[in-house]
Batch of 2 targets.
Target 1
Amino acid sequence: MSKKTEKPERPLVKTINPKALAKHRKRFLKFFPKGFKDQRYMEWERDYKWGAHELWNENLNEKDFKILLRKREYIDIAKKALQVESRTTFLFSFEKMALRDAVNTADGASIFAEGIYELLYGKGPARERFIQWIMAVAELPRKKSRVLSWPVLTLFPYLAQPSKYMIMKPNAMRFAAKELGYDLEYSSKPNWNCYADLVRLADLVGEGIADLKPSDYHDLQTFLWVIGSPEYDRIEEEL
């Protein structure tokens, strides 16, 4: 009797529930009738993120960043990065304090500066550069709270290069993924697989709401935030 030929296992293809996406698209437009071009959307969600992005490009673009690194102006780099962070509300107070304490020394600032430069402007596969960035943040000195958290890790790339990077706010993103029927490969310990899965989720959402013309991950993150944040549940009750 001849053996049956075994077929290789096909990789799992993740999807989102189109009905769930349609429901949340309708809800998003309830808040912002003109979508990502809505004036309320710009004022509530887009402008401050883009302002932080422009400040990063003004002070820490690749050319100027490289000059500062050559001069070993690590503290100055860290200060400029913290000025960008201060334009936003993504970090909790304990995360802000932990980050500031970590980069307030020459050693901490140098680890931070070299690490974020390599992630944003270095060569090599994105996976390897992201893993190196995780390791850099994990090495930052700490006083009380740990520095390595998903928001701290993903905030700066998200603001610096929103066409490439997402930010992970765990509770909101996990809830949004569940609402959309997406099995997010989440881990509280930052790692590449979880991050790449978050980006896949955002990309699928982007494909599903392409008619709204999201510009970048700033827009896609906000769409997911509207799904996953209790803040918008409260706003909805008031509408």
Note: The longest helix spans residues 39-60.
Target 2
Amino acid sequence: MKAYLAHKFYSDGRNRKLIEDISESLKENGIETVIMARDFEDWGNKTYSPKELMRLSFKQIDDCDILILEFSEKGTGLGIEAGYAYAKNKPIYVIAVSGSEISTTLKGIAASIIFYSDPKEIGKKIKEIII
């Protein structure tokens, strides 16, 4: 299974370890990830025009089985990616740190919402839901 892992991007890399831990947890549970910041932007070392970045993002979502949306922090890009995935009938799994607020709109399109305290538990939780 292949998942597009969407997350809020920070050029200073403040959430890079979190995203890497989530990706590793998913990989350990048989879920390959595509992460734009890691796989295309080299964690901020490579830049694209906004139009090109969205084109690449949509192509990657098209090529994935599911969208996993890390929504501990809100972001406009996350909403765009979620809306696109929903329009393409891709299951959307929202993950967020326990206590995070999830919008009503996102709740309406999510296949499941998973709260976590340790990012290393996400892969197992998602695998249990999907199987």
Note: The longest strand covers residues 92-97.
